[in-house]
Design goal:
Chain lengths: ~425, ~425
């Protein structure tokens, strides 16, 4: 057995215990983890300092170093996150659709854990604890594979969590870190069908694409967002300007930020200058269609074909004037990534029809796409945002980390 | 574009129309399909006769020829199935969990079609109509790829269905048959990620394994069943004998038939002869552990290691004496396929604990595993039985052919 198979088998065995551990024990383990992280933050910070030093020596970009860095405040935030997960309702055990069939069989659908979840992510040590807490609460064992730049920090966090699990009477192997950070081990993890029930990549487009293309384990695809705001001719133009300004600039690096503005021809001459007045306060670069450039001027760069399909993740916005509702929604069908799409309109029929015809995880009327988020949607937690249609779509909370089984009570029925 | 890509694109466009077609139009199309199959059964039976003739010439086994054959009675059954699907509630459009957030956003989760579904199946022309009807009712376009021995029959059914769709005002391409039946086209279909949302294999273990291993499109794995009946020492032995007899012999070729009998040591000497008395009426071949052979005699063949993991699909039963509940459930965890598992017992704690610890799509107390079926479970229809944990598990009806999207009504909210 390879090292990873050994870890997979251990996780599988731990998952069998965890699946029937019950809410009280799982919550006690989460509380023990929170307390242990507080008590042992010295060793965690020391490991993180070593990661940061190595990262600086390797010439990591400042933004990456910032995501890697921990301090007392960030650790307090991580601990608070664990306690919030402990406070959430336990999704496991709920039975839905229980009924008695004409032959007397009583059949219900019970929510159960998925089993063993693999998480592949970048050098963000907070994800290590966050993902482990969500998996634990939902009764799943977890195999974590974080970016190698955060390896020492992850190792420290996982050591603390495993000790706390043991102290709370649960198997240490409910949480494990893949210690081989080679490219080969990533490939092996993606093929570990015997031990992994699902693999969730959390990170940038490159990481996600690589996992989706190479994994044989079932994957939940997360996060790529080419989101549109469509300003319909029936829009409140002030509201529309505030919405595109927020959707583009409040946090351009995240997947629910807007990348493209579509504007109905009838209002483009009025609206585009209003939108630009707000967008220019954040120095947003516009890449427009010819009509946009004719209205706003040559400071708008010409949009290339590739721009319509790009998640800029930056203060860059593609802008296109369209001939009406059908052209706008056809354009979204052709270029959207199925993440979050918004219309701004006061026209009842346009609003309802947009909700009907646009095929995306979240479809908005008169609100910023930035709300697509587990906390904002009231799920209480988020393991990621699914952009696929199977199993889960949109923000994923604890329920999306579960499966179901039918339970059947009989009195000797045969068929 | 290849022929298959052209079909995929046409299906994708048809799916956009179908997704918002509404219940009345979908039901009218299903009724039109039922009526057209009745009206045009002459051409369908002629095509089927040509398939049968070619099949006989190619030396197809009688069982395969029987599955391939149509007659007026079977066509009436197929038509009745379409009308039953039309009569089922439409799952599309239901909104769950709608609530208003503190910031005034009203957020709901709406059930929507998956999009385009691919079905790969063997030479069973009834599946062509059955699968198309279920996909249509759930708002999905479907690409059908049936076994090549049934090609003429499938082509006749699909031609009739496409004409009926058009007559009912829906795109013909809601239902399409993959006309290239080469091995290469199967491989291409499994990689058609741009146009297919999900691929469902229906058929034997070989077909399913090939699809699961080769597909890059998301797959819903169906059907392999290595199911156990565990007779606990607290069982009513008469009931247990009737249950294993039914689970093994009522239809041994299907996935919910039992393949292995586990018997507690304390009752084995009493129970095994009782079970054999019923099983021998169907000439069941037993393959037993040494204890089983010591009790029943040398007519029981010795079970090989491979027998414990085999879906016999025949009048063959593996039999093992176990040392109690934990050994039985560990054995099921090691050798079961996660399909259907049953305990026979009158012990309350053993029953409840079996439902807790056994990880399978359907877990039974005191009933035959043969009930794992969409109709028996009250789903009204069945596209297959999922043995995976993601998206759907167990019998899949119309709801399992759907996804969801969040719809958000705002009044100008920004974040």
């Amino acid at each position: 057995m390879t090292q990873l198979e050994t870890q997979g088998l251990a996780a599988r065995n731990a998952a069998r215990v965890l699946s029937v551990a019950g809410t009280a024990r799982k919550n006690a383990a989460l509380e023990a983890i929170a307390a242990a992280i507080v008590a042992r933050q010295g060793e965690i910070l020391a490991a993180n300092a070593a990661d940061l030093e190595a990262g600086k020596a390797a010439g990591l970009r400042p933004a990456l170093l910032d995501r890697l860095a921990l301090d007392q405040g960030r650790i307090a935030g991580i601990v608070e996150g664990v306690r919030q997960v402990a406070a959430l309702p336990d999704p496991i055990g709920e039975v839905t659709r229980m009924s008695t069939r004409p032959n007397g069989l009583t059949i219900g659908k019970r929510r159960v854990p998925l089993g063993v979840i693999g998480i592949i992510y970048e050098a963000r040590p907070n994800v290590t604890v966050d993902a482990a807490a969500l998996c634990l609460k939902s009764g799943n064992a977890v195999l974590l594979r974080g970016g190698k730049e955060a390896f020492r920090s992850n190792q420290a966090f996982v050591a603390v969590m495993r000790d706390a699990l043991e102290g709370a009477g649960l198997p240490r192997d409910c949480v494990a870190l893949v210690t081989d950070t080679s490219r080969e081990s990533a490939t092996e993890l993606m093929g570990l069908t015997e031990y992994l029930d699902v693999l969730i990549p959390r990170g940038g487009a490159g990481l996600i694409r690589s996992v989706v293309e190479n994994a044989r384990v079932p994957v939940i695809e997360t996060g790529v967002g080419v989101c549109h705001v469509y300003v319909h001719e029936g829009a409140d133009l002030d509201m529309a300007a505030r919405i595109i300004h927020n959707a583009k600039t409040s946090r351009p690096s995240v997947c629910n930020a807007a990348e493209c503005l579509l504007v109905d021809r009838g209002i483009a001459r009025d609206f585009l200058p209003m939108a630009w007045q707000l967008l220019q306060t954040k120095d947003v670069e516009l890449r427009g269609c010819p009509e946009t450039r004719a209205i706003l001027g040559d400071f708008v760069k010409p949009a290339s074909e590739a721009d319509w399909d790009t998640e800029f993740g930056d203060y860059i916005l593609a802008v296109k004037v369209v001939g009406g509702f059908d052209e706008a929604t056809d354009f979204i069908a052709a270029h959207g990534s199925g993440h979050s799409e918004a219309i701004v309109t006061n026209d009842y029929n346009a609003a309802q029809r947009f909700l009907d015809v646009v095929d995306a995880a979240a479809v908005y009327v008169n609100a910023s796409t930035r709300f697509t988020d587990g906390f904002e949607f009231g799920l209480g937690a988020e393991i990621g945002i699914s952009t696929q249609k199977m199993h889960a779509r949109g923000p994923m909370g604890l329920e999306e980390l579960t499966s179901s089984k039918f339970i059947i009570y009989g009195t000797g029925q045969v068929r």
